[in-house]
Specification:
Rossmann fold; 11 helices; globular; about 350 residues; alpha/beta; 8 strands
């Protein structure tokens, strides 16, 4: 009985000690960066409104030129890392937009966020900027997944498409990615748990500019923990060196990321997705842009994806990881320009 009381007392003291450490840390930490406003708080941010949905968006180049739609990754990211594509505006009209509820676009209700709404929004963007002529698409990662899914639905509206390392286009390649990244979760070492706990405590102090800011901050901090050993996303980059998320994005959306992913999962929480059925009817050439360093969804995965397309070819960007357009902009744009021309 005395031993039991001693054990209970020891556990209680340990709990109090941990609580004291957490409280002390909470009062000592402060957020490492500010969360920017969206169009909802700052109407001077460039934006468009389509059927009451507001998007942070801007375009560059002649209004009469061929329209290119740049589709950013995620879900839940923004188009900041794709801005080197502005170089194409000397010959094309290049359109950038933050997807619904992401980046600097206003936050929306969770029920509005899904794979289906993302595809519907892409169609609305295309109709807005190029209602009478097929467009060129440049999709990166999740954006390349959307581009593939969109082509299966509206092949007549797409004249050329660049798919820069789509994460997965089928249930099978989704399973491969989850296996290679341990479900996108880092190994829960004591150091990793402490870093994530500290980031969570920092996020509790983020109250502006809206109610989603705290979770958006936490997502950016976790993705940007490039010093975590064996980070599941390190394989995307050369030598496993990850970029800092605050240098890659304006603002991430945890809400959009989680909600949209859920719509592509079955009841067991596993991805069940098909973005290629019907693609065999699209006979125009598609360019797969692949990075040399990516060990997770690099050439081997993109070879599988390419096999679904009747007419596709691959170009590999040397000395680049998954964000090849930002990492090696001149080479990436040279390859894209040659394909378009």
């Amino acid at each position: 009985m005395k031993i039991l009381k001693l054990i209970v007392k020891s556990i209680g003291l340990l709990f109090l000690a941990l609580l004291l450490i957490l409280l002390t840390t909470y009062f000592m930490v402060k957020p490492q960066f500010e969360i920017p406003k969206t169009v909802a708080q700052d109407s001077t941010i460039p934006h468009i409104t389509i059927d009451t949905v507001v998007f942070h968006a801007e375009s560059f180049g002649p209004d009469t030129a061929q329209v290119i739609i740049a589709i950013h990754g995620g879900p839940g990211q923004d188009y900041r890392s794709l801005l080197p594509l502005k170089a194409l505006a000397d010959s094309f009209k290049v359109v950038f937009y933050d997807q619904r509820g992401t980046g600097l676009s206003p936050r929306v209700a969770t029920r509005e966020l899904s794979l289906e709404s993302s595809l519907s929004d892409l169609d609305a963007i295309i109709n807005y900027y190029s209602p009478d002529k097929p467009v060129y698409l440049i999709g990166h990662s999740w954006g390349a997944m959307l581009a593939s899914g969109y082509i299966t639905q509206h092949p007549e509206k797409v004249d050329k498409a660049v798919l820069a390392e789509p994460g997965f286009l089928t249930t099978e390649t989704a399973q491969t990615l989850m296996e290679r990244t341990n479900g996108m979760m880092p190994e829960m070492t004591l150091s990793t748990v402490w870093r994530m706990t500290k980031a969570f405590l920092e996020s509790l102090k983020v109250h502006e500019p809206d109610q989603e800011a705290s979770m958006d901050y936490l997502m950016a901090r976790i993705i940007g923990m490039n010093d975590i050993e064996d980070h599941p996303m390190a394989g995307y980059y050369c030598n496993g060196v990850m970029p800092d998320s605050k240098d890659m994005f304006w603002r991430l959306s945890m809400q959009a990321s989680q909600a949209i992913r859920q719509t592509g999962m079955n009841s067991q929480g596993e991805f069940e997705i098909d973005l290629v059925t019907g693609i065999d009817k699209y006979d125009k050439e598609v360019l797969f842009l692949t990075s040399e360093c990516n060990q997770l969804i690099g050439k081997d995965i993109q070879d599988i994806h390419m096999s679904f397309f009747p007419n596709a070819r691959m170009e590999i960007v040397k000395n680049a990881g998954h964000d090849m357009i930002k990492e090696q902009p001149e080479e990436s744009i040279r390859i894209i320009r040659e394909y378009f021309n």
